[in-house]
């Protein structure tokens, strides 16, 4: 427990520089007006009232997401975005419903996600005696920078790699998933392949049973029973991700056997460094691809048929 005087000091510091409610409301209204005008200009199929209603719904969903994220440390912005996707896709129907659903989903996800992110940052500021106004200004500066850097990064990837190719390195699986969900919102479940819903029901019930078995009857053997959520990840982003996870798991397992205390302390930091390094190398790889230069070392995993077709040795 935090000592009472420390908590009082943090509360006083945090409340001293709090952001007035009027300022927050005015800023949100201004952003809503700008989005309501600009988004339909970019996507003509998206009517202004779709964006307007998204901004009306978003604060309630944002509060729910921020509250849930505070309890579980897990933002469900994508879930709320899917809710908006289905609603607006069905509303627009055949008149550009897929695009309307995707854009509305993006608007909802950005707003709802920002609410949870800001609450986490404010909690950090509360614990470190930082000014909430300074943190908010920093967030605004970062957002403005993101409006410039994000499109440039997308342009870099789009020109350097074959983004969206199912056989390529960057398959963009979520793009396909969200588009299909928008299609379902427009056409209903009839757009799904035959027996698709039956398989969904079966896998859902199976996942619930496995989780129940892990938590109740065979709790002491839970470490040897696969986690359904972890098993589902490769179906979303491809099997290459599981290779990284497997190698990381082996390293953690060996490290814990050699020095459990040090492993518990350093594993998160080392894992974060590896993830950041992988991301930084992706940027370098994109620059090399634009410059028509090959990386000095490259390793990939291909199906045996593909390797045979390319004349590569299979192991």
From TrEMBL:
Entry-linked InterPro entries: OPT, YSL-like
Keyword Metal-binding: no
Gene Ontology cellular component terms for the protein in this record: membrane
TM stretches of this protein: 21-42, 48-67, 98-119, 140-158, 233-255, 267-291
Pfam families associated with the record: OPT (PF03169)
Any one Gene Ontology molecular-function term assigned to this protein's record: oligopeptide transmembrane transporter activity
Keywords, in A-Z order: Membrane, Transmembrane, Transmembrane helix, Transport
Location in the cell: Membrane
Major subcellular site: membrane
Family: Belongs to the YSL (TC 2.A.67.2) family.
Name of the protein in question: Uncharacterized protein
Species, as recorded: Adiantum capillus-veneris
């Amino acid at each position: 427990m935090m000592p009472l005087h420390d908590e009082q000091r943090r509360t006083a510091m945090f409340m001293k520089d709090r952001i007035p409610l009027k300022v927050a409301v005015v800023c949100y209204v201004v952003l809503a007006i700008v989005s309501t005008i600009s988004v339909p200009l970019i996507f003509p199929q998206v009517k202004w009232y779709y964006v307007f209603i998204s901004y009306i719904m978003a604060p309630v969903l944002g509060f729910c997401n921020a509250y849930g994220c505070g309890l579980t440390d897990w933002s469900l912005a994508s879930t709320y975005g899917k809710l908006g996707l289905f609603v607006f896709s069905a509303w627009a129907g055949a008149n550009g419903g897929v695009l309307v659903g995707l854009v509305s989903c993006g608007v909802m996800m950005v707003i709802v996600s920002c609410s949870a992110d800001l609450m986490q940052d404010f909690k950090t500021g509360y614990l470190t005696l930082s000014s909430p106004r300074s943190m908010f200004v920093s967030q605004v500066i970062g957002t403005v920078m993101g409006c410039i850097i994000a499109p440039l990064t997308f342009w870099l990837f789009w020109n350097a790699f074959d983004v969206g190719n199912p056989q390529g390195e960057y398959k963009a699986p979520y793009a396909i998933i969200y588009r299909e969900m928008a299609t379902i919102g427009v056409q209903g479940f009839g757009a799904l392949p035959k027996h698709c819903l039956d398989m969904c029901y079966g896998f859902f019930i199976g996942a619930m049973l496995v989780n129940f078995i892990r938590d109740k009857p065979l709790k002491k053997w839970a470490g040897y029973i696969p986690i359904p959520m972890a098993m589902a990840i490769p179906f979303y982003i491809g099997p290459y991700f599981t290779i990284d996870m497997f190698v990381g798991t082996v390293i953690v397992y060996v490290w814990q056997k050699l020095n459990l205390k040090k492993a518990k302390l350093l594993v998160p930091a080392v894992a974060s460094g590896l993830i950041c390094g992988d991301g930084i190398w992706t940027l370098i790889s994109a620059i090399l691809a634009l410059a028509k230069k090959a990386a000095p070392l490259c390793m990939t995993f291909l199906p045996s048929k593909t390797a045979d077709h390319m004349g590569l040795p299979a192991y």
